[in-house]
Design brief:
80% helix, globular
Length: 398
Amino acid sequence: MVSSKVNWKQNLNVLWFGTFVVGIGFSCISPFIALFIGQMGHYNETETSIYSGLAFAAPFVIKMIVSPLWGYLADRYGRKPMLLRASLGMAIVIGSMSLVTNAWQLIILRLLQGVFSGFISNANALIAAETPKEHIGHASGKLSTGNVSGTLIGPMVGGIIAEIFGYRYTFVITGITMAIAFILTIFFVHENFEPVKTQSNHKQPHFLSGIDTAPILMGMFLTTLFVQATNNSISPILSLYVRQLDPTSHNIALVSGIIQALNGVAMILVAPLFGRLGDKIGSHKILIFGVLFSMLPFFITIFVQNVWQLGAMRLLVGISDAALLPAVQALLATYSPKERISQVFSWNQSFQAAGNVSGPMIGSAVVLVGGYRGVFAATTVIALINFLCLHKTTKNIK
């Protein structure tokens, strides 16, 4: 057995790779999902739009429902088994998407992808349980960049692979990398798990019952939902907004993918710095700063006149995410009872999935009323609501 110091760093590096690949797996299809479905049958425009929307939303809806179950099982039997279940299941399911022949087969496999969720939440729970307390902020900051960066960079990665090798190879390559994450987890992730002893016929309490810090945990759940909603509100209209800003461009898809990926780039570079700072001055202070800062680029984006200005604002959004998401993970780790920590992180993943679904819905609805620029006005308002909720939740944290 290696020392605990080596273990937690090794766990962190392996699980960062795993969460990064999972993020890519959930988002890499988005640039070409409608085109891929269109290749598999003679669907009209309406049918293609409906099937594309179902395929995009399917894993997030299922993840929102089943994540608490995987969290409960992880607290009973260990986080590592849940990591292995999720990584192997997604490797098989995502790889199988390369073989589909119609839209409904793709939708069903995307639903199964949601069933095999839980890698992100259990990676966070394992890191929170196995990392020394003085390094929680740094570890949470680094780990949070994996999933978010993978999710944001995924559309660009998927688009590049599809352009070079074809749509189906995107699923093959992603499935292989997920299988690599499964193998690495077997051999290089260590957990000192002690199951909580419960009496026979003892009813399992609600995961927040009896926890003094329940208001803080619920505040973090809502913050996660708000952050994901604001980040993803632009997803349905990004390429259209880019085309409006630069109507002469012949590379709309590539430019849109790069702009969407800038959030992830900023997070990779900046999040560990905020994590270390949070360890010194308090993660709740970093969180408040992140929410306040996020309102600035959202508001300025209303007035951008070209794609360069849009890209610069998305880069600033990534910096705010680098402050927000690691701080949420660190506060969840700090204020969660150890015997329920997997359930807490799994519920947080459910709220994250809710944000992933509600964000695009909000963006699409606002466009009908306020146009593309109205989406950013709406996200500014949502960020303001998030700040007001956070101020109330964290005012007693010292």
